[in-house]
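Thread: Modeling a multi-component assembly for a lab meeting

Hi all, long-time lurker, first post. My supervisor asked me to bring a structural picture of a complex we are working on to next week's group meeting, and I have zero experience with this. I have the sequence lines for every component (830 residues in total). Could someone generate the structure of the whole assembly? Inputs are pasted exactly as I received them:
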Amino acid sequence: MMNTALCIAFPALVLLAFFMGRSRALRLRQSALEQNQRPHSTPAYYGLWVALWGIIPAGLVSILWFLGAKFCPGLLADVSSVVAACVAIVSGLLCAAVAWYRMKPATRARNFIERFLNLLFMACAAVAIVTTVGIVLSVLFESIRFFKVIPVYEFLFGLKWSPQVAIRPDQIGSSGAFGSVPVIAGTILISAIAMAVAAPLGLMSAIYLSEYASSRMRAVAKPCLEILAGIPTVVYGFFAALAVAPVVRDIGTALGLEVSSESALAAGLVMGIMIIPLVSSLSDDVISAVPQAMRDGAYALGATKSETIRNVVIPAALPGIVGGMLLAVSRAVGETMIVVMAAGMAANLTFNPLRAVTTVTVQIVTLLTGDQEFDSPKTLAAFALGLLLFLLTLVMNVIALRIVRKYREEYE
Amino acid sequence: MTETAIEKVKRGLPGRYRAERRFRLMGMGALAVSGLFLLVLFSSIISNGWSAFYQTVIKLNVFIDPVRMDVGNLGSADYQGLIKASLRRDFPQVRSRRDKKRLYAIVSTGAAFQLRDMVMKDPSLIGKSVDLWVPADDDVDMYLKGSYHGKNRYGRLKPVQVMAIKRLKEEGRLRERFNTTFFTAGDSREPELAGIRGAVTGSFYTLLVTLLLSFPVGVAAAVYLEEFATPGRWSDLIEVNINNLAAVPSIVFGLLGLSIFLNFFHLPRSSPLVGGLVLTLMTLPTIIIASRAALKTVPPSIREAALGVGASRMQTVFHHVLPLALPGMLTGTIIGMAQALGETAPLLMIGMVAFVADIPHSITDPSAVLPVQIYLWADSPERAFVEKTSAAIMVLLAFLMAMNGTAVYFRKKFEHKW
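Re: Modeling a multi-component assembly
Sure thing. I ran the full set together rather than chain by chain. Output:
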């Protein structure tokens, strides 16, 4: 009830300030024109100026109140939020009234507004930095709490992942092992299978599309790849669990091999197909950037098209292609839904693609959507895994950028 | 006599031409694999899902016994008992207690609620016999749609149930009807009563919050970086951060949302508000990068002309540059929204994994979104949920194609050649 009243009152007061400022500015403009002077800005700017002089103090008071309540709870504990809102509104109205009274034709309203907007835009751009800082801090704090219970070397080098924590002292099965090596090995295995599928298929698709394909085929194939890229990963995961995993298992049993129904092969295959558009579009951009003069030189020497591509174009585009592959690996490592639905939860330390393995992202999801309380090492382990994942993908992205920048040849 | 050079070259040519043809075929094959996978994926989803759009219904003739009704408290009468009585009357040959229980099970548990709504809307029906079409139980539905093959032809159905179904079919009291429940009902544990309305409403609210937050902030950030930022360490840092954020795995954003929005700010769990905030942070890099590209296409002559007639820099941007770059920005935003619609992992982290049966009415109500609903249904063991999941996927893909198609259409229509 109070919330809706505030939601209506606040914009109404802002509009009131605007129109009052504007009408006063119109009157001042009239009297200034009679004396052959002109006001500095148009009346609408003066209206906005008065409104801003109302909004900014009200906003500052609200933020200060909120911060005060968060960090020194004792001070304002008994004062309800209604009083806070009233204080903010009253301070805004006071400042707006003062500004309205002191308005003159010489007041540089437009400059004030433009400086304010500039700061606002800069703050919006800084949201990116705030987000990164927020990610690092949030994951770091919880991970530090985790590492107080489980030592870092056991987490990084332990060979057994079994995140059970005892609720009662005599509970059976309460042995907690938080060694992340099997989980990381599972991630590496599935990503390797995915790259084994995506790298050749994506690169050959890119080569064919940029070198051989007619514009009609390109008009058909590119949207196809964009559709593949736009399908949500939960659909890929459902398809992997429903259609691909049984087929893989049936083929395996027909060949006499023992295949788990949640094999790494099924998840890796589907993930590879998901990454193909990424590899293809990145490689396509780089291959198209190779200047035609190099290709023409090779043709002039009598090379066939495939020989040109193999010996001239690809080596010239190689840094970009490698950078693209690294970005694709980082995408594969961070992928969640396909592996949650198609890969298993058993942390086996194996490189056999026919067995079930688990990945870092699956463990994060399992640990945080279970029913353990938030402080136990079991759930905090998820944040430690998240930190690991974030650092891993960050390092891979930085390396990819470095490689592209360092080895890229400038042709112009 | 030694070969001349030209003869050596001519000798090697057929092999080289063969290698050329092989290479070309490999390229076409790679493209064909992608196309084939797309075909297999779509045909698999559609073949699994199209049967969810129709549903088996059974016509019952129920006598609303006034003895069982308490007029003052119509809501809590034993409607299930009335339905059971109707079934017993139709099949008097069913004797044993176990067989009777199986007989009752061919009708969905939602039938009792349907009857209750009917009586509460029109209490004059008490004492009369009414005909109503009720949904059949999902085991019956699956059997009639031919989901079971081979030895297990009847699935979980017992002989008495198969007999009853055959009788009802002969009497014309069993038929297939378009499944409106799928679009009007929220989630349910019973597959025949489950629908996507709650998930679609939740997705709508979440995307609304995301759009309202990410579009202004993204455009403002792009304008700042493109028009007002002085090249230096500060803007370099912002650019590096934006590029990094575009490549961070989505689940890390979920962890951010969990620890800051839920644990620090105590916002309501599993609400579209928190989901929208997390998705805003995820789509901001996309919108910023697309908006910057759109701003770059506006030629400098426009800016210089505006400055030349006396506009300030802010006025140049707002009155001249921004309107010209707006179509490109909108295209980028639509694509960003389409990506946000398909996101699941970060929303799982902020608690949308719970079973939410009600339709959300505001951005602070707990809700599910369509991809999360698909994930939850994919985990269910009942066979009927396979077709429901596939049908929900079809709805999601339809929305995504509509959004991407709109973006492509806008891009083509407003493409301005300077």
